[in-house]
Amino acid sequence: MGHGILLVEDEATLARNVQRYLERDGFELRIAATMRAGWRDFEEFRPDVVLLDLNLPDGSGLDLLARIRAADRQAKVIILTGHGSVQTAVEAMKSGAWDYLAKPIALGELKLLVDKALGQGRMEETLSYYRGRDARQGGLEAMLGASPAITDLKARIAGLLQAERAMAEGDAPPPVLIRGETGSGKELVARALHYDGRRAEAPFIEVNCATLPAQLVEGELFGHERGAFTDARERRIGLVEAAHGGTLFLDEIGELEPAVQAKLLKVLEDRTVRRLGAVRERRVDVRFVAATHRPLEALVKEGRFRADLYYRLSVVQLVVPPLRERAGDAAMLAAHFLALHGRRYGRPGLRLDAAALDLVARHPWPGNVRELRNAMEQAALAAGEARELGAAHVALAPAPGADLPSPGPTLRQMERDTLVQMLDRTGGNVSQAARLLGISRDTMRYRMAKHGLDAAAGLESA
Ligand SMILES: Nc1ncnc2c1ncn2[C@@H]1O[C@H](COP(=O)(O)OP(=O)(O)OP(=O)(O)O)[C@@H](O)[C@H]1O
């Protein structure tokens, strides 16, 4: 029997997508759109995992979290949080949530978290899951693109791997620092280094230093002995040890707390870890790969990142070019992602028409490949029965400096039209429409009120 999952989420489209995706993997899903329905379903259904949106129409998910925790300490609660509300998510973690995921939700990532929640305490299983998952999507061949910029990068990686193959067995390869804008493919580079290298059979462990709550970082990275602190009922090995023989990928390294930076430096220098509360140090053989989109040199100057750690980590630096500097790649990647999402949503054969392709080629892609992938997913969802998608299906935030509509009496009407159009496209879903427009739900409601629209009226006048 599949594990039961309760999804408390008022964004209908998102809920449906999560449901389809997880049901395909054999999970049993229930959806509740309000706090009240969520509680009722929780009592009736007794799920193993609850996916909880904090921003519900009839109250805060935090209250529901408290009730759930009081009723059942086994169920794992994963918080789904909007942009900019990471602080609230941390609050939720303090109140007993198991983990959180920021919106827009990447379904693959969500599935990984659910698997981890169900298998927590069974490190073996988690590791073999990581291996299985990664073996399918690692390697240089997963990095698509034919532009000179990406070809150069791939050649550098291949050269590095070749040099490493010539190293003596047991000689740890140098740390690598991957730089590049958000969404440009830094993680993909880290995977390629692992899965095309000598350590491919050993674990690839990934840590996002930005999303680990500060108070958990040390325990997560270095592990702890039983009784090391009040809640440490069991001994737990840390992620550094879990990566023994393989690769530890430290994403968003610029976000690491100074105290943890010092400890990490020690691991890099001595190649040993000491679990919290342990007397003994253990030797570890780990390849360190770190990534950041932040200017680390500036953080070093400001005293926020240790210079010695920076030099240790950056023996080899790889720079991932932004998508806008990869001539021709955007159109090719757009076709790739459109086909991928088309298959996932049961709409094969989707393609972009000339105007849409032109839009894709000219857009500056501040969110890089991730933005492109998400835009193609939204386009696939917005396509309806159409096979050939036009510029209107591809909802892109306007480029800075792009032609702006002339100000004047029509501006108000244009704003209204846009709101109506987005509400129409999302079947009246205010949150989804807000997301397409790149504004918050509150701003969306405010603007709708300004134009005397409600979701239903928006649909009528469209
Ligand atoms: N060259 C590429 N070919 C195919 N897919 C790509 C490519 N580059 C990136 N992607 C995809 O784009 C998404 C974002 O990439 P990735 O997570 O590696 O970016 P990142 O630079 O690590 O982002 P962040 O800085 O936000 O952590 C992923 O789904 C990844 O598989």
UniProtKB/TrEMBL annotation:
SMART domains: AAA (SM00382), REC (SM00448). One of its GO terms (molecular function) is sequence-specific DNA binding. Gene3D superfamilies: 1.10.8.60, 3.40.50.2300, Homeodomain-like, P-loop containing nucleotide triphosphate hydrolases. GO terms for biological process: phosphorelay signal transduction system; regulation of DNA-templated transcription. InterPro entries: AAA+_ATPase, AAA_lid_NorR, CheY-like_superfamily, Homeodomain-like_sf, HTH_Fis, P-loop_NTPase, Sig_transdc_resp-reg_receiver, Sigma_54_int. Residues 143-381 form the Sigma-54 factor interaction domain. Residues 4-118 form the Response regulatory domain. PROSITE patterns: RESPONSE_REGULATORY, SIGMA54_INTERACT_1, SIGMA54_INTERACT_2, SIGMA54_INTERACT_3, SIGMA54_INTERACT_4. The modification 4-aspartylphosphate is found at residue 53. Keywords: Activator, ATP-binding, DNA-binding, Nucleotide-binding, Phosphoprotein, Transcription, Transcription regulation, Two-component regulatory system. The keyword Phosphoprotein applies. This is Sigma-54-dependent Fis family transcriptional regulator. The lineage of its organism: Bacteria, Pseudomonadati, Pseudomonadota, Alphaproteobacteria, Acetobacterales.
